[in-house]
Specification:
It is built from 5 helices and 8 strands; from the N terminus they run αββαββαβααβββ. The protein is α/β, with parallel strands linked by helices and 200 residues long. The protein has one domain: 3-Layer(aba) Sandwich (Rossmann fold), CATH 3.40.50.150. Helix 2 links the parallel strand 2 and strand 3.
């Protein structure tokens, strides 16, 4: 059985409502800072793709072919590729910018996926990320833990209780404090990869 994230029309309907309630501003931010050759990991139904500036060369990667077909209907200027975050089908240091929007909550092995992101990002490149994370409020975090199994099943893979920022730091990314914004469990920020990887 597919979850909400794998049913294009249902996912787009849900996200249209979320965007209308204010999420679109953060979507514009995460895409607006992209430069040069840009990889969007987990582009889904392509909701971000129309927002890129014309001079940005965009490659969209998505695991689900059905979602990628929905993305193609939104744009015709991006190269769309089937693949997973844990095994990016690109050469080392191939991209100037990597964008990730509500993706690493669903990646099966987020640490491996972020190591792959670091591999294909050029040394001076940047990761721009928009994600929901484990709550910093203890009671809320406990509720996320309780809800996680059912939520993951219904959505088709989303884990609401992941500490994605901690995973980033463990892999070797440094989050730009000036770019970081928090709203409840939502986070958006830019990060750069340091070769001094504390996880190795």
């Amino acid at each position: 059985m597919k979850g909400v994230e794998q049913i294009p029309w249902l996912y787009d309907l849900y996200m249209s409502l979320v965007d209308h309630l204010g999420f679109a501003r953060w979507r514009w931010w995460v895409v607006g800072g992209a430069e040069g050759r840009t990889l969007e990991v987990g582009c889904g139904t392509g909701r971000n793709l129309p927002f890129y500036e014309p001079e940005v060369t965009v490659v969209g990667l998505e695991l689900d072919l059905l979602l990628l077909r929905a993305a193609r209907k939104k744009v015709n200027h991006a190269l769309l590729v089937v693949g997973s975050a844990e095994a990016l089908p690109f050469r080392d240091t191939a991209f100037d910018t990597i964008v990730s929007s509500l993706v690493f909550c669903s990646v099966r092995d987020p640490e491996l996926g972020l190591r792959e992101v670091a591999r294909v990002l050029r040394p001076s490149g940047k990761l721009r990320m928009l994600e929901h994370v484990r709550s910093e409020v203890r009671v809320m975090a406990m509720l996320q833990n309780l809800a996680q199994p059912a939520w993951t099943l219904v959505t088709g893979g989303c884990h609401p209780n992941r500490g994605t920022e901690a995973t980033l730091r463990r892999v070797g990314f440094e989050i730009d404090a000036d770019s970081r914004r928090a709203n409840g469990t939502m986070r958006r920020f830019a990060a750069r990869y340091s070769s001094m990887d504390p996880g190795k």
